[in-house]
Every structure is written in structure tokens, then in C-alpha cells.
Amino acid sequence: MQQPDLAGFAAPDNNLHRLFFALWPADDVRQEISDAASRLLWEHEPGGRRIGPHRYHLTLQFLGDYAELPPSLVAQASAAAASVTVAPFELVLDRAGSFRNRSIPWWLGCETVPDGLLQLWDSLGAALARSGVRVQSGKALVPHVTVLRDAREPLPAQGIEPLHWPVDSFVLIHSELGARNAYTQVGRWSLR
Which of 20, 90, 131, 143 could join 80 in a cystine, given CB atoms 3.0 to 4.6 angstroms apart? Predict the structure, then answer.
């Protein structure tokens, strides 16, 4: 397990600091997601803002937004993650669709949620609760990778050519929204 990098998290700035656990695709899977997104965008011409492939992820547990990211939260969340024991699994992205909120995000998701993903989500949520870390995720997992924001129209749910994503780890991401708009991987834990 990688130790969390706490350097500089408490420095005040004008950015919003977001912290979340996620599945982080390998480069080959990231490219397949990008190719699938390109096909959808070419077919439907939805306008909007395409998400850069370097930002593709599947959120597991959302820990919140902060004016300054508390190092103690990163340490508690990292300790909780280290206690999670779930076997590696395969995630198959075989659906595309959108959510009906203001930004009309388009996503790639799965018809059938693998048991391993549900176990990881449950185990991580329970470990965070035991560690006193408040989770701000919903009460149910809706696995998806966002590929576009601010589409002109929703995308009706539809099948896509299946993308096979071998999942053998999960990560803690610090996202800075503002001038930097950057993702930093704070920690990575192997599934075992």
C-alpha cells in the first residue's frame, strides 16, 4: 500500500478541494473508454464538454468538498482503505446513458454490477464508518464513468460494445476544482 501524500493539503487557496475513492482505469482501458465516448459523440453530436481521458474514473465513495483539505481526514480515510479486503474482479462497461440533472452528464456504465464491485463499495463504506469518516455518497451505488458534461439533450440508455476492465486496486483522489483543476492520486490499495 502506498502511504498518503499529505504535503501541501492544508495550504489556503481559492480552489475547492474534493476527496473521493474511485476505481482508476489502466491506460489501455482508459483508451477504450475514450474510443467508446468518441463513437457516441460522433453518432449523436450532443455538444457539451468532453471529459479528458486522464480524468476517467468510477467513484466509489465521495468524502466531500473542502475549502482546505484536512490532513487528518486523508489519514483516517487511508487507514480505513488499508483495512478493506476484497478479491480482484472484472467490470464490464456495456451501457451508455445520461443523468437528468442540470449538466446532463453522459456516462458509460454496466448492465450488471459485479459482486466484487458491490463488496468493495460496501466494505469501504463500512471501514470508513468505523474510522469515523463521514461519507457523502448516496445510499446506492450507481457505477458509471462520466465522459461528457453539459450535453444539449439526454442520451437514452443503450447498449455499447462491451469494455472489459480488470479491477485489481482502488485509489483515493484529491481533486482541486478552480485554477488548477487537477486530480492527485493520494493513495492506492491493491485488492486481495
Answer: 131
